[in-house]
Amino acid sequence: MQKLTIRRPDDWHLHLRDGAMLEGVIGDTSRHFARAIIMPNLVPPVVTTADATAYRDRILKALPTGDRFQPLMTLYLTEHTSLDDVEEGKKSGLITAVKLYPAGATTNSHGGVRDLNKAMPVLERMAKIGLPLCVHGEVTTPEVDIFDREAVFIETALDPLRQRLPELKVTMEHVTTSDGVNYIKSAKANLAGSITTHHLIINRNAILVGGIRPHYYCLPVAKRESHRLALRAAATSGDTRFFLGTDSAPHVDPLKECACGCAGIYTSINTMSCLAHVFEQEGALDKLEAFASLNGPAWYGLPVNDDRITLVRRHDAVTFPAKIETGAGPVTVFDPMFPLHWDVES
Ligand code: NCD
Ligand code: ZN
Predict the structure, then answer these.
(1) Which ligand sits closest to the CA of 264?
(2) Whole-model pTM?
(3) I want to staple 118 with a disulfide (CB 3.0 to 4.6 A). Which of 42, 79, 93, 165 is the partner?
(4) How many structural domains does the chain have?
(5) Range of 135's domain?
(6) Can you tell me whether residue 177 is helix, strand or coil?
(7) Where along this sequence does the record place binding of substrate (predicted)?
(8) If you measure from the C-alpha of residue 101 to the centroid of ligand 1, how many angstroms do you get, rounded to a whole number?
């Protein structure tokens, strides 16, 4: 196949940041994607509907002229989140989901939830009004090995929560293990999962073999090869419970290339090329539209986009810059370590 036309995709997990970084990265998303679920882990985080309204307005203001893009806003769940504010946000159409960061799990998560019991009243209200919970599914217990944190979270936090509140719709974000894939597949209802571009391409060797490579470090950290293969099988299966959430998470290079580097991989700019490559390798180009453009809206109860994009397979490799320059500083672009041939026709 040399050409593939699909419904315009959406990104169901995206970090746009704020200020000069927001201005520097948003065009890479709005070029291809119609909508994205915007992560609320700013400093300070997006906690209230008022915070989310102001952040949405800053995003819309930063959009390149002519681009139509709809940010789908989320609230950062805390142990003090107001039930009525959450309900208000959902009713007004502003809030698409609430995000649970276990405190300390990842970048800017220290204000997250320490004790899930304290968040139960909000979660119960969300279940009642049909507002989904997006979950960063990792425990933060120091004793638990970083490569096991997703599996342990499922067993000790997610499954108990879902048994207690089966009506709550939960998105397990950036699934990185076969444990996550199997858990989602085993659920009867109200559970789905997003998968990133990079977790379909790299395993943990990318971070550690031949030297420490900070631009392949993200959270949840990439796991061993068998897990990557499970993610690829899930993403390319057409199963409606799996969809794209790039987790594109820009940090300026000095904050990644240092003794204690930040977690996050920047993929907005080349995600569609990378995905077409992966789906082609799996003999599943016919499933790319489900993964990138259909399954997400179905899960969130939104219409699919009415326009389309066309991917073209070029004879010569399609190149992307190694870094983008933002007003906040340079950001290294995800290098899949193989030549890309699929291009989005402009
Ligand atoms: C994200 C970030 O930088 O905000 N980092 C990452 O590695 N994915 C946070 C997150 O989603 O865990
Ligand atoms: Zn993220």
Answers:
(1) 1
(2) 0.98
(3) 79
(4) 1
(5) 3-344
(6) coil
(7) 15-17, 41, 136, 219, 251, 263
(8) 10
